[in-house]
Amino acid sequence: MTPTESSPMPEPMAAPPQFHVYDTTLRDGAQQEGLRLTVTDKLRIAALLDELGVGFIEGGWPGANPNDTAFFAAAARGELTLQHAELVAFGATRRVGGVAADDPLVAALRDSGAGTACLVAKSHVGHVERALRTTLAENLAMITDTVQHLRAEGMRVFLDCEHFFDGYREDPRYALEVVRTAAEAGAEVVVLCDTNGGMLPSWMGDVVSAAGAVGVDLGVHCHNDTGCAVANTLAAVEAGAMHVQGTVNGYGERTGNADLVSVVANVELKLGWPVLPPGALTEATRIAQAVAAITNVSGSARAPYVGTSSFAHKAGLHASAIRVDPNLYQHIDPARVGNDMRMLISDMAGRANIQIKGEELGFDLSDRELAARVTDQVKAREADGYSYEAADASFELLLRSELGQLEEYFSVLHWRVHSHSAAGAPSETEATVKLRARGDVQIFVGEGNGPVDALDHALRRALTPAFPAVDRYELTDYRVRILEGPVGEKGGHGTDAIVRVLIDTSDGTRTWTTVGVGSNIIEASWEALSDAYWYGLLHDVATPGPAGRPAGTDDDVLTVAASR
Amino acid sequence: MTPTESSPMPEPMAAPPQFHVYDTTLRDGAQQEGLRLTVTDKLRIAALLDELGVGFIEGGWPGANPNDTAFFAAAARGELTLQHAELVAFGATRRVGGVAADDPLVAALRDSGAGTACLVAKSHVGHVERALRTTLAENLAMITDTVQHLRAEGMRVFLDCEHFFDGYREDPRYALEVVRTAAEAGAEVVVLCDTNGGMLPSWMGDVVSAAGAVGVDLGVHCHNDTGCAVANTLAAVEAGAMHVQGTVNGYGERTGNADLVSVVANVELKLGWPVLPPGALTEATRIAQAVAAITNVSGSARAPYVGTSSFAHKAGLHASAIRVDPNLYQHIDPARVGNDMRMLISDMAGRANIQIKGEELGFDLSDRELAARVTDQVKAREADGYSYEAADASFELLLRSELGQLEEYFSVLHWRVHSHSAAGAPSETEATVKLRARGDVQIFVGEGNGPVDALDHALRRALTPAFPAVDRYELTDYRVRILEGPVGEKGGHGTDAIVRVLIDTSDGTRTWTTVGVGSNIIEASWEALSDAYWYGLLHDVATPGPAGRPAGTDDDVLTVAASR
């Protein structure tokens, strides 16, 4: 931490010898209202969590639902390769009155292919007697049997004590007995869960210390019902917990789980303990936003550290001081979490970002005037709802247009879509596309499941005579986001709202993303779709070096100006 | 607190003899990105804050901008009548080298009509020297002069020490000197501000205690940059602060201010100190949501205490236990903050969730076989991509269909959509809907910004002759999610993927949500759209008691079977 940063740091605590960063986005995070993850979503999120450098990824509850079972099967088949993280299967202790070795859900843990199991067990007398409806002794026997069985099968075992803090208030002796039983059976970490989220930070210390006296490594799992999930997690760490559970973007049931990125950023940047691989924290903002793109449940713009507003300044008072020294008005350098300071007068990234981005794509934007012109273009289009952060291909088309290095492989004369349904029958959709390519006018019709599919088929057929390469292009993802009106105004919120469409296209080797915006979802999709073909052709047909001369020489290949 | 509630409460602390709940939504909250308040907005929000029973409402900075000046003028003219709260004018200490009595901004405070002024002053050596560019002595003189002047004019004065915690780390002697200077000049409360929001709860206590040694009443003002604003505020209270500043919905610059409702609910329900008028806290959810409606910046669905998801349950494991005792899975009775427990319907849900949800809607699902049949229906449709978690209205239509209590107000004969664009021109879209309603066949065309807008216009026109009430229905939100193929399979990922559409509709009084699914986005939107009208008519035209007989008697009103 540089001396000008403004975070006071009293006597630093010593870091524990080992520290577990344990993510449960794929299991407890998926309890979030409105969030549903497919197997592919889970695989993509797991890869991002691994990039973030978490130690453990709780992938779900195999055997409890087909989706989670399929995720572990896919991971076991090699569809997930982890560099840092260990995959964990979540499950429960065996059934009341059963035997762990014969329990089908315990078998699902064993068969999951994960090296570590995290078992949930009751530790609250009222829950044992009234929800589980068994005896206190049987609950302990279930823990012993299940932990010992999985350990004997060669798995690492963690144990989540559900409702631990509430249980400790009701009957501290029994709650601690659960911790001791799990430890003696071979659980490596016993995790104290504030399942209902009712704790305050000042109440955590004594309870965690009491559990620590058992002599096992402790973890903590908090929910945000008092608005203190992050603080409660830190209080447990300060009282000796060495394992923190949480989720990206604080996803979770009710008020959510502890936001794992906030917890880890506080541990690294405030307590000064490096708990992620070196440099990993600087990817936190990108990763949190990428996870939100997959779940389609946005993180808060005001999320600590990684929110889009988290280092944005509006107050005039602040703005003038920031000119003197940015650190006077920010608690850390936002680059440490991969975020940026933003002044809200200029709503978007500055010239420096654009220059860096251009360099990434191989363009020289060191000319200040050129960089400023491109920045102005990007700002104007982002104000209209475009987003180039994910849409690299559309950004390159825009950049080449400004540089005069964009060729028009085809020009569209018109497109039409017709969709209809008679009562009871499935809908039918057809599209017509008329365009000129390599001098010839083509008109083709395509059918599809919906308007964009039909347009894709028609466009592909119309381009094929001139550019047979388009046959390899496949649309691999299609995402739609409804935008509201300009900030501060009451914009369209219903079916007349502005729509942003992102399309991913693959040629089998590489994938690119394009963006379209409009109040008509078909028109916005068409823009992203035609950009997708255009970008593909740019790299297939003519591949001029970014600074070199165009390779296309056909008379009908025109430099574009007005249409972009 | 009833004994079954799950919040542990260790040795209760004694409440201070007086406690200030101080709201700064109208001043610091208005620094939130995207939030802009008119004078009318401010008057309405102030009235709501007064209903919440806060002690102080910081209305803005008179003299610093015309909007805030106008707000104080309107309040002084009697456009704002406060029952509980005192209006506070925010301002700064006089200019460097000036005299408080002659300072125009100090005059604006005097002339504001507010009985209390809250002055911001620097307390951080680096900020005095580098941002304010004056001497440490002059900064103290500015405080003394301004506080004494306003006190002599008969105002109560509070003083905000900007960057106090960072300043204390840099030079504790000077930071405490500022507190002492303000107290000696007559400030009633000195507020310690974590302006950059970089503090952790465990760092608060020592600093607040050191300031407390000066012997003046202390307040605290926190920002959420570490995700600890609420916890930091509580830590200060536990160290002796008797005045808490915050904003409704946690509005504020960057990551926001401390959420005042969370702070107050924790103080009342967890620390056990009554700090609002009796019963006022039960209005908290309504008031927080009403403020969000005025600002047009939603609070988080996951906001502690007052969020729409804050007492929503999804896991089947939880749902069965909730039937035993709701307090097993909630940290307080949600009625204490005016919120409700909600069961979410999802593929993770079991029969228990469905039964509770049915009861919420007024249906008797105690028949196990019926409940099982509805559960199977929900699971089958969710497997196809439907999601009833948010779509209460579609869930009720499904439930009524299973119960034989669903009437068909209209039957659609066909719909058609046509969208086209010629190169360079904006797209045009028209839709045709042909339906039968109350025995008459109607066919109408509608134009729109896109296919759904056009269909909405055509459907509305076709229904109006039979049901003029539809004129009041407004589509207020439209959300699209691209789904992948069935669980575990590689489904369509591109434009042939399955699409889920959610539509919110309002009749001006209440809002309902419907869902549609399909590979054609137009068809999926159509399903959600026609469900939306259907549900509206169900409650407008015929309102049979849930268990009663249908009220509709037209011959052409048929019970629906196959179409659902």
Automatic annotation (TrEMBL), chains A, B:
Catalytic reaction(s) noted: pyruvate + acetyl-CoA + H2O = (3R)-citramalate + CoA + H(+)
Enzyme kind, highest EC tier: transferase
Highest rank taxon of the organism: Bacteria
Pathway info: Amino-acid biosynthesis; L-isoleucine biosynthesis; 2-oxobutanoate from pyruvate: step 1/3
PROSITE patterns listed in its UniProt record: AIPM_HOMOCIT_SYNTH_1 (PS00815), AIPM_HOMOCIT_SYNTH_2 (PS00816), PYR_CT (PS50991)
Keyword Amino-acid biosynthesis (UniProt): yes
GO biological process: isoleucine biosynthetic process; L-leucine biosynthetic process
One matching Pfam family: HCS_D2
SUPFAM superfamilies noted in UniProt: 2-isopropylmalate synthase LeuA, allosteric (dimerisation) domain, Aldolase
Enzyme Commission number: 2.3.3.21
InterPro entries reported for this sequence: 2-isopropylmalate_synth_dimer, AIPM/Hcit_synth_CS, Aldolase_TIM, Citramal_synthase, LeuA/HCS_post-cat, LeuA_allosteric_dom_sf, PYR_CT
Pyruvate carboxyltransferase domain mapped to chain residues: 19-286
UniProt GO MF annotations: (R)-citramalate synthase activity; 2-isopropylmalate synthase activity
Keywords, in A-Z order: Amino-acid biosynthesis, Branched-chain amino acid biosynthesis, Isoleucine biosynthesis, Transferase
Family that this chain belongs to: Belongs to the alpha-IPM synthase/homocitrate synthase family.
Protein's recorded name: Citramalate synthase
Lineage: Bacteria, Bacillati, Actinomycetota, Actinomycetes, Propionibacteriales
